[in-house]
Amino acid sequence: MRRIVYSALTVLVVAVAALSALPLFVSGEGVRQQILDSVLSITGREMTFRDTPRITFNPFLGFELNDVVFNDANAAAADAPFLRMERLQGRLKILPALAGRAEMSNYRFVRPQFNLRVHGDGTTNWVFPQGRIWNVLNAARAAREATPAGQKPELSGIATLQLGTVEIVDGTFNYDDRRNGRHETFTNFNGHLSWPGTSSNWSMDGNFIWRNEAFKFGAGSSQPLLLLSGGTAPFTAELSSGALDFSFEGEANLIADLHLAGNAKLATPSLRRLAGLHAATLPPGSTLSAFSVSGTLDATPGRLSFTGADVQLDGNSGSGALQLSFDKQVPKLAGTIAAGQIDLTPYLADLAAKGGEASPVQDGLPMLAMDIDLRLSAATAKAARLSLSDVAATVSLQKGEAAFELGNASAFGGVLTAKFKLRRQEGLYKAELNATASAFDAAAAIRMAGAEKSPLSGTASFETRLAASSADMAEIHKAVTGQVTGKIENGVLAGVDFAELMRQSQTENADISKLAGETAFRTVDANLTLNRSHAEINRIAISNSRVLAQIAGRADLMQGGLALRMLLTPSQPAPDGAPAPEARLVVGGSIANPVLTRARAPGGMETPGGSDYTPQADPVSLGAANAN
Questions:
Q1: How far is CA 278 from CA 179, 265, 301, 326, 331, in A?
Q2: What is the DSSP letter of 254?
Q3: Cis peptide before 81, with omega less than 30 degrees from 0?
Q4: Which of 81, 208, 260, 456 pairs as cysteine with 299 (C-beta 3.0–4.6 A)?
Q5: What is the model's pTM?
Q6: Structural Rg of the chain based on CA atoms
């Protein structure tokens, strides 16, 4: 028993002594040459470093290199090398070391700087068309190309190249695409890449900073050799930061460029913050906050395309397709989304907000540094008090011009269409609105505007063409000009009985200063010209079986003042051919409190304050109107 113990102790002491003496078995100069030979053999490229490798034993047998440079064979003289790092540390395998050989497994890159370049001809400096790894990839590529379509390539017969794991500490990645001048920098990169051998699974994870945003990432593939040889392989990826969360599970290939196909989800707590990552500054506001899209993703570095997607924005939800592309100077967002209900009220509030930064267009168009082309449909859409149904619309932003087209919507029992454009030109905001509405309930529309009780009922239609130009977006509503024409049929106008007013006006001493009663009408025809804060009433004709009322003049839309002329005549000629009675009146005061007086003469009219005003169109010259 004592011999056994002594023998075991002897073996233990010898083993400890051998391990302690391992650094003595490994020659620094020998390691130097073997490292250079190994790198050249695997990659086909040369690596340089300063001084002789230092052999370490704590915490494991390894080596350390200083000032490591990995050259780019196609780089210009002024170009930075493909890789430069402060230190390269590696682990040496023990048994080969006892035989005096330096075989490496795990590596640590300390403060490396990778300079990734796409040259003008499309070639890249991170593809090494030489060395053992290239030979393995070529063999896998040949096996894949020889495999009949629809069958899985057999790669098990390809010789395995042992690689290991790589840890990156405080790294920097510079990316330059010389085809389009794009440059990106990723700093504070810390991560692990695990790929023990070319026949093994591949995975990586870590964190980095890009555009002042901290990110965490992870990715993996169960068939990396198939993926790197141009085939399609299983692939998973995750990317998260305070600005976004992205996850993907599906397949990837590198036939032409990275191509992803599978299920994915993209979410952000704030589209404004996400836009900031892409140099698109959005002013503060209550909208464009929480956004998410999930569905089937088909993606390349220049395009993200979601189909069968669930989309949510600011509490609104819908489904359809979205595509974000980067193949032009500015990104483009396009898609078709169908929603149950959309609430546009917060967006209108943001757009109308006064005071500098609160307005999304205060600093000029474009509001986003991208083009937008969206087609939207909704069962219902709400905008303040307005509620629409069966909505079909498009939203676009191209070359600094924002446009909204309402192709169809049901409102108040009728149909509404509209086109709105807004652009920034020569220091001015310029807006255009063309809209039509047909067969809608006039009383319901007026009550929607805030009136407790509508003074007007009937079936209405209108058409409007408006434009405005202003240096201040918050004041653009004061600069509106254009035309409005409309017609209302079979309704009632509350507040005035035109037949009674015409009768009373024939009596010299009758008090006609106040409007009262109501008028049931067959038609109301209106033609107005808007000129900034005023409405020029070219003609309003109201008719029923007894009376025809024709009105022209001006209304102050800001202050509410009125300066109108009114001509009242019977709607039907007298049966005996006698001259028809008529009443010529002046409407002054305000919209809320109109005041009537008799006109002095056909050519002028008396207004409060004693001044005469001749309207743009004299009611007398409007011509006889037929009672419809």
A1: 20, 19, 15, 11, 9
A2: -
A3: no
A4: 260
A5: 0.75
A6: 40
What is the pLDDT, as a whole number, of residue 116? 92
Report the range of poorest mean pLDDT among 121-125, 231-235, 571-575: 571-575
State the burial class of residue 590 (Cβ atoms within 10 Å of its Cβ: 0-12, 13-18, 19+). Answer: middle
Separation between Cα atoms, residue 185 and residue 113, nearest integer Å = 10
Write out pLDDT tens, residues 18-51: 445 555 555 556 677 777 777 778 777 788 888 7
Between CA 491 and CA 465 the distance in angstroms is: 25
Cβ neighbour number for residue 493 with a 10 Å cutoff: 21
Q: Could you tell me which residues come within 8 angstroms of residue 90 by beta carbon, excluding any fewer than 6 positions away?
A: 35, 62, 63, 104, 105, 106, 107, 108
- Whether the per-residue pLDDT at 138 is higher than 60: the answer is yes
State the residue for tokens 């039907």. Answer: 572
pLDDT at 598: 84
Write the CB contacts of 260 (distance below 8 Å, at least 6 apart in sequence).
235, 237, 248, 250, 251, 252, 297, 298, 299, 300
Q: Which two tokens stand for residue 326?
A: 């980067």
Strand pairing partners for 239?
217, 246
Structural contact between residues 502 and 568, judged by C-beta atoms closer than 8 angstroms: yes
416 touches 437 (CB < 8 A)? yes
Q: What is the DSSP code (8-state) at residue 359?
A: S
Give the pLDDT confidence of 510-560 residue by residue, as tens digits: 777 777 889 999 999 999 999 988 999 999 999 999 999 999 999 998 888
